[in-house]
Amino acid sequence: MGTPRLTAEPLRWLGAPAPGGLALPAARPNRVQLYAPRGVYVDDRAVVVADTGNHRILIWHGWPETDHQPADVVVGHADFEAEGPGLLHLPTGVAVVEGRLFVADAWHHRILIWDALPEKNGQPPDRVLGQPDLDSTEPNRGAEAGPLGFYWPYGFAYVNGWFYVADTGNRRVLGWRGLPDGHGPPDLVLGQPDMYSHAENRGRGVGADTFRWPHAVVGDGATLYVADAGNHRVLGFTPPPDADRPADLLLGQEGFDRAFELPHIPQGPRRLRFPYSAALCGEHLAVADTANNRVLLFPGPPREGMYPAATGVIGQSNFDDSGENRWQAVRRDTLCWPYGLWCHKNLLAVADSGNNRVLVWRLALS
């Protein structure tokens, strides 16, 4: 018997409707419209979206029952019509961890934490990681790279008792045993020889232990996956590391020393171009193959090895095509620069950033 194929059916569309053809949904901030969302979180009680281009977080309490349903709460601004950087500047990763809302406030070089999912518009955060206080926003706390500061932290994850931050601008992943309090140094650095180095690919070229743009982290007790977008690959560490070491799994490239990217050719089921996110969906790893305008589904999920093939694709009708919205129209089953992913039970939420929307797909084995 072959590996069961994971299929996807579009279930819900959050954001404004598309006017037709390749015209994008409207993006002016209000309770419905999104502008280039880059992060999404879904559970049984809420949907949370990083409405990145509008520098805010939108929250739906309860499952949205209709397409284009208005959000219930906005944070980052006092009301739904405000725009521009304020509390938040290009927020990206979002998740609820042990009842707390975490937001990667990337261009303020910090992660903000609300002790409970906000119920009121404009609710301020309760604590911060990566800065000495809630008023500070300088890269690396206004100094050189070190153990307590961030430079463009685009993603984070809480995996098997560890809290990881994709510290993208410092070309590293930091890890803490347990949820950090903002004061203690991390217990782990991946991608650099120490807590003070920050060179791209360690300053010596792409390898099994280097990053260019580590952008998102996901995993379980068996494997830690890092979407290394700038090197057009995903690295897997099996088992999850407790010290810096080379990866055991490589997706998207034929060798650990490769960072190949060539647009406008048939892409196939193995190649990745700027994979900005990943999510574990049962026995599959979903990867946002962002510049190829698709999500690839790898069975297993893969733990070790090099250059495995995906068995499912979302957003394209086959593995060779890569056009934005298939160069046809903004439809329920097309994608344009899918950015953030989140899996919950049989649901896969996609921050379809180029289409100013979030799509939720129902997954099924066939």
Automatic annotation (TrEMBL):
Database matches in Pfam families: NHL
One Gene Ontology biological process: protein polyubiquitination
UniProt KW Repeat keyword: yes
Stretch list, region Disordered: 122-141
GO MF term set: ubiquitin protein ligase activity; zinc ion binding
Entry keywords, A to Z: Repeat
Gene3D superfamilies referenced in this protein's UniProt entry, alphabetically: TolB, C-terminal domain
CDD domains, per the entry: NHL
Protein's UniProt keywords contain Repeat: yes
InterPro entries found in the cross-reference section: 6-blade_b-propeller_TolB-like, NHL_repeat, TRIM-NHL_E3_ligases
Protein name according to UniProt: NHL repeat containing protein
Organism: Kyrpidia tusciae (strain DSM 2912 / NBRC 15312 / T2)
